[in-house]
Write a structure and sequence with these properties.
The structure is a single chain. By secondary structure, the chain is of the alpha/beta class. Helices cover 43% and strands 12% of the residues. The chain contains seven helices and six strands, in the order αβαβββαααβααβ. The protein has helices at residues 6-11, 27-39, 65-70, 76-82, 98-114, 123-131, 137-151; strands at residues 16-20, 41-43, 50-52, 56-60, 120-121, 156-157. The strands form three sheets. The protein has a two-stranded parallel sheet. Strands 2-3 form a two-stranded antiparallel ribbon. β2 (41-43) and β3 (50-52) form a beta hairpin. α2 crosses α4 (76-82) and α5 (98-114) crosses α7 (137-151). It is elongated, with a radius of gyration of 21 Å. The N and C termini lie far apart (48 Å). The mean pLDDT is 89.
C-alpha cells in the first residue's frame, strides 16, 4: 500500500514519483493512488497525522487505459487525474533504426560492466534484431544484449547469442 512507503515518499519530496505499469494496479490500490493524487498526503502506518507530500507524478503503462476503463478494470477518475500530459511512444518495432542504436548503447554499457571482448554485432545479429517484433520492447532488447555480452566468446555477438537465431 502507498502508506507502506512513507519514508520513500518523504525522500522524494519536491521530486518525482514514478508509477510503473499503473494499468496493472488492482482497483483497491487505484483508489488509494487517486486519494493520494487528490489530497497530496500520506498516512504513516500507526501514525495519527497525515503527511503532506509535494511530488511530480510520472506514470508508465504498456496497456491502453481507455480500453481498461471500458472493461471496468481501471478507474476513469484516476485516468483523468494522471493524464494531464500524455506521451505515446511507439513500440520498438515501429521505430526504424532505434533497435540497433539502443542495442549498441546497451552493448557499450554491458561491455564495461562485464569487461567483455564483444565489440559489435554480427551481420546476422543485426538482421535478426531488425526482423524481430520485440514484444518485450526496450527491456527485452536490453536483456538480450546483456545475455549476448555475457555469452560472447569472441569480438562479435551473434543472433544465437541474442537468442534470435531462426529455428529453421
Amino acid at each position: 500500500a502507498i502508506s507502506d512507503h512513507v519514508g520513500r515518499v518523504q525522500s522524494a519530496q519536491a521530486g518525482t514519483l514514478f508509477l510503473d505499469e499503473i494499468g496493472d494496479l488492482p482497483m483497491e490500490l487505484q483508489a488509494k493512488i487517486l486519494r493520494f493524487l487528490q489530497e497530496r498526503v500520506v498516512d504513516h502506518i500507526g501514525g495519527r497525522k497525515e503527511i503532506p507530500v509535494d511530488v511530480r507524478i510520472v506514470c508508465a503503462m504498456y496497456q491502453n487505459l481507455e480500453d481498461l476503463i471500458s472493461k471496468g478494470l481501471f478507474r476513469e477518475d484516476l485516468y483523468y487525474r494522471i493524464s494531464d500530459i500524455v506521451l505515446e511512444i511507439p513500440s520498438l518495432k515501429q521505430r526504424e533504426g532505434d533497435t540497433l542504436l539502443l542495442a549498441k548503447s546497451f552493448l557499450n554499457r554491458w561491455n564495461k560492466e562485464y569487461s567483455s571482448s564483444a565489440k559489435c554485432f554480427s551481420a546476422g545479429a543485426i538482421a535478426a534484431m531488425a526482423a524481430y517484433d520485440w514484444p518485450g520492447n526496450v527491456r527485452e532488447l536490453e536483456s538480450r544484449v546483456k545475455r549476448g555480452v555475457i555469452m560472447a566468446d569472441g569480438s562479435q555477438i551473434s543472433a544465437e547469442g541474442l537468442e534470435l537465431a531462426s529455428s529453421k
